[in-house]
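Quarterly update from the structural biology core.
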Amino acid sequence: MERYDLYIDGQFSKPAGGEYFESFDPYAGKPWTLVAKGGGDDVRRAVESAHRAFQGAAWRGMTATARGHLLRRLGDLVAANAESLARIETRDNGKLLAEMLGQVRYIPQWFYYYGGLADKIEGSVIPIDKSKMFTYTQHEPLGVVAAITPWNSPLLLATWKLAPALAAGNTVVWKPSEFASASALEFVKLVEQAGFPPGVVNVVTGLGADVGEPLVTHPLVAKVAFTGGEQAGQRVYELAARGLKRVTLELGGKSPNIVFDDANLENAMKGVVSGIFAATGQTCIAGSRLLVQRSIHDQLVDKVVNFAKTARIGDPSDLNTQVGPVTTRPQYEKVLRYIEAAKGEGATCLLGGGPSRRPECGDGWFVEPTIFSSVTPAMQVAREEVFGPVLAVLPFEDEEEAAQIANSLPYGLAAGVWTENISRALTMAKRLEAGTVWVNTYRAVSYMAPFGGYKRSGLGRENGMDTIKEYLQTKSVWIDMGNEVPNPFVMR
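Predicted structure, tokenized:
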């Protein structure tokens, strides 16, 4: 069985404790590789390495233009190795190869985009209200950034952090999910090949308590960029607050997909199915609440159920497969508990409702695409993030009720609106408490468009031009151009 080591200070090294843990193939339901089980000593080594690199001439003395060249070179290497990286991700987390290929082939655009921004970070001269003073601002990197990423889209979500952090001149210690670490350790080989100085990017694998907590609390870490669940995010926020660290959090969601009676129902049907089943529901932006106007409720629900029945379930490495396994055994069991809870609360199961026993699913952790109707906003399946292929259908009467139901939860990551009425589209986009609102589409993302949540779905934004500012701090410089001696006891 292949074994992956830690990557610290430009080289692979064994964990201080000498331990490794198994990483499972969700389709086979069996371990396929061993990953280093890092700990506090490994975190210290990695952070100190990143700090040395941040202070060292090889990185700090590099021009912003040269940093941009390195990022673009890294983008080229990712493009050249996209298929092998995608296959590793599929093996490690069970997501569809078709989706992982699409993600990894798109990743280079982040490195090209932020590589281009690297030498366009400009300060400004302030026409200050003090005579004979020359005052200007400059933007400087923060230092060591801790990047903590989840198992559902490991490389894509890591890139959302790495690209702007490196473009701004920071160094990084990256902790990938213990359920999907292999692609990070393959990716970092490309970082080395691109020519980044040792210590600029480090990878420490392991469990959250063993690696994540000492990483977040290390005094040399200046910022934490985290994507993951709400409870883990809250813990990261609390720990980081002790050191007054900068924090970006992209957390969970319970996103509403809202269909009005003037929508194109064929397009809406496909958008609904894509929003919840295409990634086996394992995405923070999953459209797990389908809000349907009462006048078309039965018609649309029938369409969605019949279309979802045709989904091809099975081997995620087969490009024809449309629904893959749940990534981890604990998550698989959690999804099944949510399904039983929905039945117990009185929801009507129109499709699925349990494990998939199809021959093409083998011994993997598969859940049948599941749709519940007769759902009320108070039910657990309508309020909590299931993170699996489970759709809750809720009826509404008009725009007012749709907005009320959509905004009633403490989450606000994303929302979908399906309507042919431009006035309604603009009104709902304004009223919905969500960081992203899609109209007549769903799950579209770009390196150019900011992404993040309202309320308990997170803090800060990733992607887009302004995100690089999340990895910078601003310094004001004052120069006295006069020759007179100021009064030392009076603020000027």
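The CA atoms of residues 314 and 358 lie 8 Å apart.
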